[in-house]
Structure formats: structure tokens, C-alpha cells
């Protein structure tokens, strides 16, 4: 019988298997159906907007009712059905926008609750969490490369089957995951008198989420236009794919070794270092994009600007919020940082790319990361001087 560890890992594996296929190849399918760059951008914007709106609703519902597995099953199955609805409506623009919004409403509520359920089951053991989470990174690589290879020999309509198949497997893995309420003592799910907004308003929490927002905003250029900026600089598709892959590989290495890294460095040092790496990474991309050794070097920084920073965020959220606040905290992180932060970053990067080119866009990304670093430094110094009241 599969262990609880492998069942939680399967959720991440199939979620990011779908994400890899969807992120890399869905815009291509839309273009094949005659949609312009503008229309594809609007469809993408609707999808991102739901990442800002949906997690808060689902997080509040999860923390109120605490039946996480049932909610996950409902959302996984609804995501599968709404993806099928997208396929049916793909040639009708308004209907496609509506079905995309419906799909985003259900899908964007999944990952925060997977994070909450996994961390609660592991009782905040970040090392074991990272060993589970890395399977999502592995499946993302598989999705991008395997789908690309299949599309070289098979029709692109294959994408439909791959997307639906990965969501169906996600529903099955969710059904097979442990029931947290059944396997954790009731005391671990006990209610807290502290209001969620009060927890969110603590100075340490405000500072951390503000720096996380800016960090994700700085990655907007990367997630939205990394491939395009490299194509403009003359890189081949194979080379670009390899650069994406090395970033995920070093991210996996950090997930596997983060426990040992924390034995030598404090969380504050890691926090500041990740932000500093982001400043340098985007400066390299701004000034050295035509030098492939420097671009490869910059991609190694993804180990910390995403892998290390994400690991630290999971530790921080689990430590700062009570059990019954975890789903709302993860949902706020998804909406505010990954949704609003990354979405604004992509929008700003698109404007800069069109008007001034990739150098200006990467320089602004570096400035965003630098602003986060300055806030983090002053925040850390201020909090160090405050008496410990807890």
C-alpha cells in the first residue's frame, strides 16, 4: 500500500504535470484557433485574476468547515469538468472567457489547500514537505519536455487529452490522499481565539508578505517573457528549453537540501540572501542576455529566488498562523503574492518589453527585488530591537 508521503507527493506531481502542459502549450492551442495576441492576453488575464479572487473564498471555507479532503475532491472534479467546458467553447470567445473564469475559480483554490493539508499532516516538518513538493518540480520538467517531444510526431489536438488526463489523475490522487481529520489528534485542529486579520497585521507578517509580493512581482518578467527575450537574443528553442530545465533542477536540489542549509544559516540570512540573489539575477539578464554562459549562471540563482524563498515562505506561514488559519494564510499568499504580485509583474513587463525592450524590463525587475531587499533589511533590524512579547 502506498505511504501517506507518496500519496501527498502524487497530488503535487499531477497538479504540476497539468500546470507544465497548460503554461507551455495552451497559448499555442489558442493561437491555432485564430485568437490574436491581444485576445490570448485577455484570456490569460482572466485566468490570473481568478488567482487573486478565488483562494480567499476557498480558504475561508476550508478554515470554517475543516473538511479539507471533501473540498479538495469537489474542486478537483469541478476543475476537470470546467476544463472540458473550455474545450467545448474554445471557438466562441465570450463563452471561452466565461469557462476560463469558472475553471480558474476551482483550480486556483487547489494548491493552497494542498499546501495546508500537507504541512498540517507533517506538523510543519519543512524537510519532509520539501521532499514531497519536489515531485511537483520533477513533473513540471516531464510535462514540458515530454509534451514537446510528443508534439513533434503527433497532432497538437493531443494537448486536450493530456490536460484532461492529468486533471483526472489529480482527482484520483486526491481521493487516495489521507484524511487529515481522521489521522491527526483533535487537539491539533483546535480553534484559536486570535482573529486571522490580527495575525495578518503583525509587523513581521506585514514585512514578510510585502517583500514576498515584490519578489514575485520581479519574477513577472521571467514567467511572462523569459522565452521571448531569449528568442529575440537569438537562442534556439532547444537551448531555451534547457535553460528552463536547469532552473527547475537547481530548485529541486534546494528542496532536498534546505534542511541542511538551515543548520548553517538563520532564516533571516536566507531571506535576505534570496532577495539579493534576485537583484543580481535580473541585472545579469539585463546586461548579459546575449552571453549564454552568463544566462546559464543567472539561471542557477533560481535555486534561491524561487526554491529557497518558497521553502522559507512555507515555514513562515506555518509558524505564524494557527491551525485553523492555515488555509486562509496559504490562500492569501496565493492571491496576494503569486496572483496579484506576479500578475502585475507580467503586465508591467509586457508594457516595458513593447516600448523599451527586455533590458528595461529586467532592470525594473531588479529594482523591484532591490526594494524588497531594503524593506527586509530595515524590517529585520526593527524587529530585532523589539522585545519578544510572545
What does this structure look like?
This protein is mainly α and 390 residues long. The protein is globular, with a radius of gyration of 20 Å. The protein starts with a helix and ends in a 5-residue tail after the last helix. Helices cover 83% and strands 0% of the residues. It has 17 helices and no strands.
Q: Give the C-alpha Rg.
A: 20 Å
What general outline do the C-alpha atoms trace? globular
Name the poorly predicted regions: 182-193
Helical coverage, percent range: over 70%
Order of helices and strands: HHHHHHHHHHHHHHHHH
**Oligomer status:** single chain
- SS strand fraction: under 5%
Structural class: mainly alpha
**How far apart are the termini?**
43 Å
Mean pLDDT, nearest integer? 85
The number of E-state strands comes to: 0
Query: Number of helical segments?
Result: 17
**Sheet with most strands:** none
Features:
mainly alpha
Structure in a nutshell:
The protein is 83% helix and 0% strand. It is an all-alpha fold and 390 residues long. The longest helix is centred in the last third of the chain and has 30 residues, at 326-355.
Secondary structure topology:
Blueprint: H1 4-32, H2 37-65, H3 68-88, H4 93-107, H5 110-121, H6 126-151, H7 158-176, H8 180-183, H9 196-200, H10 203-218, H11 220-232, H12 237-264, H13 267-288, H14 292-300, H15 302-320, H16 326-355, H17 358-385
Helix pairs in contact: 1-6, 1-7, 2-4, 2-16, 3-4, 3-5, 3-7, 5-16, 6-12, 10-16, 10-17, 11-16, 11-17, 12-14, 12-15, 13-14, 13-15, 13-17, 16-17
Amino acid at each position: 500500500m502506498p505511504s501517506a508521503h507518496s500519496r501527498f507527493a502524487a497530488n503535487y506531481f499531477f497538479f504540476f504535470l497539468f500546470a507544465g502542459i497548460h503554461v507551455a502549450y495552451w497559448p499555442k492551442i489558442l493561437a491555432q484557433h485564430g485568437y490574436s495576441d491581444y485576445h490570448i492576453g485577455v484570456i490569460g488575464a482572466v485566468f490570473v485574476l481568478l488567482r487573486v479572487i478565488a483562494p480567499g473564498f476557498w480558504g475561508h471555507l476550508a478554515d470554517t468547515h475543516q473538511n479539507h479532503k471533501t473540498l479538495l475532491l469537489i474542486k478537483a472534479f469541478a476543475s476537470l469538468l470546467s476544463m472540458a467546458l473550455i474545450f467545448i467553447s474554445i471557438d466562441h470567445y465570450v463563452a471561452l472567457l466565461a469557462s476560463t473564469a469558472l475553471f480558474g475559480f476551482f483550480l486556483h483554490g487547489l494548491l493552497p489547500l494542498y499546501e495546508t493539508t500537507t504541512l498540517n499532516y507533517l506538523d510543519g516538518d519543512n524537510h519532509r514537505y520539501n521532499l514531497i513538493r519536489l515531485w511537483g518540480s520533477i513533473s513540471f520538467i516531464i510535462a514540458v519536455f515530454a509534451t514537446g517531444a510528443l508534439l513533434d510526431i503527433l497532432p497538437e489536438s493531443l494537448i486536450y487529452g493530456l490536460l484532461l488526463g492529468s486533471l483526472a489523475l489529480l482527482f484520483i490522487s486526491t481521493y487516495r490522499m489521507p484524511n487529515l481529520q481522521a489521522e491527526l489528534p483533535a487537539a491539533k485542529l483546535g480553534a484559536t481565539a486570535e482573529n486571522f486579520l490580527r495575525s495578518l497585521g503583525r509587523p513581521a507578517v506585514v514585512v514578510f508578505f510585502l517583500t514576498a509580493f515584490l519578489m514575485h512581482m520581479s519574477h513577472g518578467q521571467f514567467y511572462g517573457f523569459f522565452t521571448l527575450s531569449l528568442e529575440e537574443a537569438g537562442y534556439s528553442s532547444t537551448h531555451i528549453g534547457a535553460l528552463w530545465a536547469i532552473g527547475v533542477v537547481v530548485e529541486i536540489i534546494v528542496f532536498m537540501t534546505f534542511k541542511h542549509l538551515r543548520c548553517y544559516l538563520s532564516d533571516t540570512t536566507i531571506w535576505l540572501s534570496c532577495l539579493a540573489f534576485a537583484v543580481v539575477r535580473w541585472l545579469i539578464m539585463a546586461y548579459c542576455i546575449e552571453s549564454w554562459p552568463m544566462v546559464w549562471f543567472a539561471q542557477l540563482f533560481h535555486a534561491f529566488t524561487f526554491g529557497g524563498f518558497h521553502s522559507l515562505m512555507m515555514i513562515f506561514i506555518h509558524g505564524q498562523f494557527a491551525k485553523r488559519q492555515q488555509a486562509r494564510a496559504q490562500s492569501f499568499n496565493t492571491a496576494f503574492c503569486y496572483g496579484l504580485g506576479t500578475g502585475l509583474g507580467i503586465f508591467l513587463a509586457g508594457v516595458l518589453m513593447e516600448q523599451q525592450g527586455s533590458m528595461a524590463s529586467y532592470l525594473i525587475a531588479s529594482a523591484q527585488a532591490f526594494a524588497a531587499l531594503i524593506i527586509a533589511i530595515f524590517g529585520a533590524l526593527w524587529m530585532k530591537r523589539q522585545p519578544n512579547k510572545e
